[in-house]
Write a structure and sequence with these properties.
Keywords: Membrane, Transmembrane, Transmembrane helix. By secondary structure, this protein is mostly helical. The chain contains nine helices and two strands.
Length: 208
């Protein structure tokens, strides 16, 4: 049952990646493709079997999370048309550096089985500080968009991501990632529609 959940999550992420490409959100597309890979490897792990191949295929999962997850901050700032000031890039760079240290340099993979899935997981993984900080920033931007423009999706999606990741249930965390990505795409679509409505677009607090 759980492997099927991850196959569905991979399919959902792939669909989101295609839609992101249609919207020409290229950096977001790269992030979503990486998340597609993450779910795909977990889904197929038992079919691939334990060994060097599965281990090698698993390493990009952690590299992608370390390097790409914090990029959601400037991505969302761009969608919201908030100025990406120096602190935004400094925070993003700092979170990437921390992620590289904890998720790549200190990476030690061990085989784990869970409800029919087989995967290599980070044995010494601690609290995912870069991911937590990223989601908190996204919640903040989401609150601003909801309050000023009536667009609730980013806030709701980021809160759902935070709650699912904190649940301690493995597959719920991945489902929360899909919800977050969908909420970012819905936010982008909502803002495009606002921009095409002169009476609303002209009142946008974020309009350049």
């Amino acid at each position: 049952m759980i492997p099927l959940v991850f196959w569905l999550l991979a399919a959902g992420m792939l669909t989101a990646a295609v839609f992101s490409g249609v919207l020409r959100l290229w950096l977001l597309t790269v992030v979503v493709v990486a998340l597609t890979w993450d779910n795909l490897i977990v889904a197929a792990g038992a079919l691939i079997g334990a060994g060097d191949l599965l281990r090698a295929l698993s390493v990009p999962r952690y590299v992608a999370h370390a390097v790409l997850t914090p990029l959601l901050i400037p991505i969302v700032f761009g969608i919201a048309q908030l100025r990406r000031r120096l602190w935004v890039w400094a925070l993003t760079g700092g979170l990437i550096a921390l992620g590289v240290y904890t998720e790549i340099i200190k990476l030690h993979l061990e085989l784990r089985e869970y409800a029919g899935t087989l995967r290599y997981a980070h044995a010494a993984a601690g609290p995912p500080i870069p991911a937590i900080a990223t989601v908190l920033v996204l919640i903040g931007v989401g609150v601003l968009l909801w309050k000023r423009e009536g667009v609730p999706w980013l806030c709701l999606g980021a809160v759902a991501m935070f709650a699912s990741a904190g649940s301690g249930v493995f597959w719920l965390g991945n489902a929360g990632e899909l919800i977050l990505i969908v909420s970012i795409l819905l936010t982008a679509v909502a803002r495009i529609r606002l921009a095409k409505t002169p009476s609303l677009g002209s009142k946008s607090a974020f309009a350049r």
